[in-house]
Design brief:
By secondary structure, the chain is α/β, with parallel strands linked by helices. The chain folds into two domains: 3-180, Alanine racemase (TIM Barrel, Alpha-Beta Barrel), CATH 3.20.20; 198-307, Lyase, Ornithine Decarboxylase, Chain A, domain 1. The protein is 24% helix and 20% strand. The strands form four sheets. Strands 1, 2, 3, 4, 5, 6 and 7 form a seven-stranded parallel β-sheet that branches. It has a four-stranded antiparallel β-sheet with strand order 14-11-8-15, with no helix packed on it. Strands 9-10 form a two-stranded antiparallel ribbon. It is elongated. The structure holds pyridoxal-5'-phosphate (PLP). Pyridoxal-5'-phosphate is lined by residues 1, 3, 49, 122, 158-160, 174-178.
């Protein structure tokens, strides 16, 4: 899954890095995302996982993208335009997209004439131990059993489901956030390597007297005479405002809490115990500061933290 610009990391460099692993296909969420990969020369199948609008089908075809369909109208329009690979989306409980597993009947005559090359469902609570994954899996199995022809590619699992039950009972899986270094906790059987780092440089360091405040709205106050470093990274770079007064960075191997509200272009760090100086590089994300940890400190979802990384950040791709 390289949708949302590969979760904020850059769809094209990520796709190029994944090429050598021979993925079955790339998953995107919009036609524009798929067209970008095609225009850049990516040749593998690209599956558009959001429901395809009938009006977009000609453009989807022109870009050689595989649409996801779930209605008689959609399938008929795809076939009228020349046919080709398409995927059937089956709603087994997420209630976001696809044909309901228990309401396939109206679609069956169409499916008998125009069989999909794949069918899939999406879990609503793959990170929870609530038994819903098994329920949805069973609904999917029942729905697939009713299809006139078994599609070549059946798939259900996103990252958390893959980590939970490997190998899949089906033909392929759809890892997203796992590829970007976010796992499902320390006790998980499969753990990803960290792949993303976010660094910023200290621009200034100042002394703040006990009782003085830092940043907008004066939400942080020095409990003791403090050293405060200003770094060139703000919420317009994707360092979310919510991390202020909650998360910390690392500098010279020590913890440096984010002092006060993160501003648009800069953030301040309490480096009283870190002994940092101007020019030092601070780590917000990296091997020792995982996306999961930082998201948890800030009360954010790791998905939002990653996909929130903004274009203004200068990017460097290593080994890709
Ligand atoms: C985003 C998405 C995935 C990947 O989910 P992760 O939790 O990031 O692994 C898989 N399947 C579908 C249909 C998706 O929309």
């Amino acid at each position: 899954m390289v949708k949302a610009d590969a979760y904020g990391l850059g769809a094209l460099p990520v796709a190029r890095a994944l090429e050598s692993l021979d993925p079955m296909a790339y998953g995107v969420a919009t036609l524009a995302e798929g067209a970008e990969l095609r225009a850049a020369g990516i040749r593998r199948p690209i599956i558009l996982f959001s429901p395809a609008r009938v009006a977009d089908l000609p453009s989807i075809r022109a870009a050689s993208i595989t649409p996801t369909l779930a209605s008689v109208d959609g399938v008929e329009a795809w076939m009228a335009g020349g046919g080709g690979d398409w995927q059937l989306s089956i709603d087994t409980g997420m209630h976001r997209a696809g044909v309901r597993w228990d309401a396939l009947d109206p679609l069956l005559p169409t499916l008998a004439r125009h069989a999909p090359s794949g069918a899939f469902t999406h879990f609503h609570s793959s990170e929870l131990d609530d038994g819903s994954l098994e329920v949805q899996e069973e609904r999917f199995r029942a729905a697939v059993a009713r299809l006139p022809v078994r599609p070549r590619l059946l798939h259900t699992q996103n990252s958390a489901a893959i980590v939970r039950s490997t190998p899949s009972a089906w033909d392929c899986v759809r890892p997203g956030i796992f590829l970007y270094g976010v796992g499902s906790g320390v006790r998980a059987a499969l753990r990803p390597e960290p792949v993303v780092a976010l660094h910023a440089r200290i621009l200034e360091v100042r002394d703040v007297h006990a009782g003085e405040s830092v940043s907008y709205d004066a939400t942080w106050r020095a409990a003791r005479p403090s050293r405060v470093a200003t770094v060139a990274c703000g919420y317009a770079d994707g360092l979310r405002r919510h991390l202020g007064n909650r998360a910390h960075a690392l500098v010279r191997g020590a913890r440096a809490p984010i002092a006060g509200v993160v501003t648009m272009d800069m953030a301040m760090l309490d480096v009283t115990d870190a002994g940092a100086g101007v020019g030092d590089v601070v780590t917000f994300l990296g091997a020792e500061r995982t996306v999961e940890e930082v998201a948890a400190e800030g009360g954010l979802s790791p998905y939002e933290l990653l996909t929130g990384l903004r274009q203004r950040l200068p990017r460097a791709y290593r080994g890709a």
